[in-house]
Amino acid sequence: MTQKEAFDEVKVLSVPDTLDKLSASADGLTREEVEKRLEEYGYNEITEKEVNPIVKFLGYFWGPIPWMIEIAAILSAVIHHWADFWIIAALLLVNAVVGFWQEHKAENAIELLKKRLALNAKVLRDGT
């Protein structure tokens, strides 16, 4: 069962049926149950993978469109059209720099939004 199917199934269940499906009660989980679930499933968090900025920048030179442009630059160099080579190379570099900068700004905006998220939740443990 996919995560979406499981979510759709829980949406139509009543509260008692949902608590039963999740092996929970209206009094919350016991400390022992919390420890067991943490050991089995881990914390409710999404781990983020940091990518080296240099690798991210070099990624803008990888793909079908950059390959076509790179081939055009290489062909210009092979036939000694140096003006064309330098123009193509400069445009390829400018495209990578602009793309990298735009992505960097978007990542900064996402980080700012993450900092404003609520990091705490109220839960019932052993009825309190």
Structure description:
By secondary structure, this protein is mainly α. The protein has two domains: 39 residues, no CATH class; 63 residues. It is 64% helix and 0% strand. The two termini are 34 Å apart.
Blueprint of the fold:
Elements: H1 3-11, H2 15-21, H3 31-41, H4 53-58, H5 64-78, H6 82-115
Helix pairs in contact: 5-6
List the keywords.
128 residues, mainly alpha, 2 domains, 6 helices, 64% helix, 0% strand
Kindly state the number of beta strands: 0
Report the average pLDDT across residues. 88
What proportion strand? under 5%
Count of domain modules: 2
Run of helices and strands: HHHHHH
Write a brief caption for the model.
By secondary structure, this protein is an all-alpha fold. It has helices at 3-11, 15-21, 31-41, 53-58, 64-78, 82-115. It folds into two domains: 3-41, no CATH class; 53-115.
